[in-house]
Amino acid sequence: MTVDDLLAREAIRHVMAKYTTSGDRLRVEDFVSCFTEDAVMESEHVPEDRAFRYEGRAQIRAWQERWLAGEGDTHGATFVRHHLSTSRIDLTATDSAEARTYWVAWTNIGPDHAGYYLDRFRKVEGEWLLAHRRVRMDWEAPNSLFRSAISNSQDAAS
């Protein structure tokens, strides 16, 4: 492993942390800046009514703006904190990487839902960004405050 490899991995970890803290705090511009212009963010292994797929920064931004506006009574939590744990980052080229990262979201009820991210990163103009994020949910509490969050934040025009 080279110093450049270590720096790349640390830059990718920084993007993961920025995504998580920006999303939890509804800092839309910071959240969107984690993605390439042509990024894809989609769910995996969730019921159809909670599936989502957003292509490009504009769709990702619009989704986050709906959350910020509280459209559709998004969820019943007064706070959400995503905690990242084990993360394996594999550099696939000098400008690309893949990662698998486990997460759990805490809300007013404690552990609310959990899963892992399957990511592809791309280095664009010297900056590592998410090119494709698949959000896999493995578990949710029976009284999860986020059970209807995704369906409630969908674009009504979709």
UniProtKB/TrEMBL annotation:
CDD domains cross-referenced by the UniProt entry: NTF2_like (cd00531)
InterPro entries referenced in this protein's UniProt entry, alphabetically: NTF2-like_dom_sf, SnoaL-like
Ranges for domain SnoaL-like: 5-134
Highest taxon of source:
Bacteria
Annotated protein name in UniProt: Nuclear transport factor 2 family protein
The scientific name of the source species is: Novosphingobium kalidii
